[in-house]
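Hi C.,

You asked whether I'd gotten around to modeling the 224-residue construct. I have! Everything is below, sequence then structure, no commentary in between.
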Amino acid sequence: MSQPSLRQLLADLHAERERTWEPAQLQLNVDQRRELVEAADPGLWPKVGDLAPDFELKEVDGETLTLRGLTAEGPAVLVFFRFAGCPACNIALPYYERALAPGLKALGAPLVAVSPQVPERLVEIKRRHDLSFQVATDYDNVLGRELGILYTANAATRAAAEARGTFIGKTTGTGTWELPQPTALVIGADRRFRLVDVAPDWLARTEAEPILAAVKTALAEPAG
């Protein structure tokens, strides 16, 4: 039996919200995602063929991950997500565990899920879903900022959160409203991007197939 696509899983999440959320709450969510799509500027994002910037990420189990280390033996995959309690992220990461991680393991390509959330809070999502791949913190959104993939919630979303006494910066441990837009990156052994897929709408994320295809293409390229 075929597994549902990530698109379908996220569509199901939205359909459930349409059934169960108050209209004003749902409209706030829809408006925020629509505004992010309309404001997106692909000119800020890296392009296929660009050199990836050097980086250091802190894996939730203590290891420091670097661009050089991840691509030492071939291509690597990074998927950016928002934070451990994000409902869509709790759909996307288990999907990647089922549909992406086994194929990448067979190809010898590491997979790292990246969020700005501090490790002691981010570890929750790795444990909850027993993820076999690495989950790492991009402290202070350093890499996300360099990639041009960050966003800040609009005024209406911030006001609603403040009215509830919540603040995403407290949840993530970053102290700011900044979060990464869901993004999939494939980086070759030459440290150049083979896939850059940014989703301003966090209910639209990269399926496993194009990621696997980009890794296979990178592996098939002659060395140098």
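If it helps when you're writing up: The two ends are 41 Å apart (CA to CA).

Thanks,
B.
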